[in-house]
Every structure is written in structure tokens, then in C-alpha cells.
């Protein structure tokens, strides 16, 4: 194994292939930004890992199907790393070796979220005192957990913008529970773009495809240079996107009566500087 300080440390009795080890290293290297997004949104380790179980289960089933190997609890457990109990639970809940709809999973609920849930379900006022034996923020937390300090829960809910604190009172913000269509659409577009970007790159790495997946990198730049490059990028994207959109419209019209017109196409561009 590489002696580089960025390399993963594995047990002495564990032998990973070079491809396995380096893939894990690189996957972990792109995770901090996703974890940052999760924590910013109030999603912790327990909720995330529970969701990951279904994803590993699904991908193990897909891999067995792609190599035409019989699906069994043992085979799925071996590929996914899930224990057989989890595999059997998915089979019993969703059908024998049926892909799980991860958007309908029952995920664990964090203590702060449960506190807010009890607050709403008990129809308490939007403004309650922090301290007190009854109908206080402290009493709500104690109903949920004896291990979490009420002040810690309050700080987390304030960080997420769910409550504000004024004059020893805690005020629930109704706006935090109101859907924001514009923000939701931005998240959906972003994740669709990232998903296809990953699909293109991973397909190139694992299936020897040749999807366009390139980037230009420059460093040791002044802020003025970065701003000029930003503007050049926007100008060139505007020109290219108009040409691609025009061609896509023409192709869509030409393919309207084609029964084999069941493919999709995405071209994406991103820019980042720091």
C-alpha cells in the first residue's frame, strides 16, 4: 500500500487489490463536500447510513443481474457488505430481490427533528419558554432524550433556522416548514447534473466508454484573472448552449415518429474558483 499520508489505513490482515484501495481513496476524497451539505441541512450519520443500506442493496442486485449471477442473500451480502439480516429484511419488505425505492424509505429521525415534531403534535404555542417543568423547550427535549442537553438541541435548531431565541423564549419559525419550490428545483437540477456527470466518468473508468468528461485547471492566479476567466467561460457557454439547444430541437422534431427514440442526452458545464 502507498506510504502517502493520504492513503487509507487498513488492518494488517486485510489485503485490498490496488484498484479497490485506490477507488475507495478517491471516493472518500469527494465525500467531504457531500457530508458538508448533509450537516448544513441537519442530516447526520445515522440517517445517511440507513439510506446507504438501500443503495448498496440495489447496486448489488444490479451487479448480479449484469453478470448474470443468481441472486441470493449470500451473494448480495458479499457484494454490498450488508449483513444477511438486512438483506432478508429488504426482501420481506419490498419483495424478493426487488429494487428498493429509496425515496420511500423509513429513515431514523434525529433528536432535534423529534423535538420539533412533539412540539407541533402537542399543539403548543409557537413561542415557549426555554426553562420550565411543563410546556417548555427543556421539557420537550426531556420527553425525547435524557442524554441530549436541551441547550445543545436549541443551538442545533437555531443553526438550521428552525427556531430563534428571544428573552429566554424559543420561537418556532413557521417558514422553515414551508416548501420552497425554487430551492427544491435547484436541488433537483443540481443532483441530476451531478448524477449524470458521475455516470459519465465512472462509465469511462469501468466500461471503457468515451463520454466527454474534461476540465481546465489553472492556479496561481490573481482575482482579476479569475474574474476574466469567469466572464470568458460564461460568454463561451452562452454561444455553445444556444447552438446545442437549436440542434437538440431539430433532432427532437426529426425523431418524433421514431419508435427507437428512447435515449436522452445531457451536456453540462460547471465553473469553480477559490
Describe it.
There is one protein chain. The chain is mainly alpha-helical. The chain folds into four domains: 18-104; 111-177, Arc Repressor Mutant, subunit A (Orthogonal Bundle), CATH 1.10.10; 180-213; 215-274. It is built from nine helices and three strands. The chain has helices spanning 18-40, 45-66, 73-80, 84-94, 111-121, 137-144, 150-159, 181-207, 223-254; strands at residues 127-129, 163-166, 169-172. The chain has a three-stranded antiparallel beta sheet with strand order 1-3-2. Residues 1-7 have low confidence and may be disordered.
Number of domains: 4
Helical content, roughly? 55-70%
- Sheet with the most strands: spatial strand order: 1-3-2
Quaternary state reads single chain
Regions with pLDDT < 50 over 5+ consecutive residues? 1-7
Could you give the count of β-strands? 3
Q: Which strand-content bin applies to the residues?
A: under 5%
Q: Based on Cα principal axes, name the global outline.
A: globular
Q: Give the distance, in angstroms, between the N- and C-terminal Cα atoms.
A: 32 Å
* Biggest β-sheet strands, sense, barrel: 3 strands, antiparallel
State the order of secondary-structure elements, H for helix, E for strand: HHHHHEHHEEHH
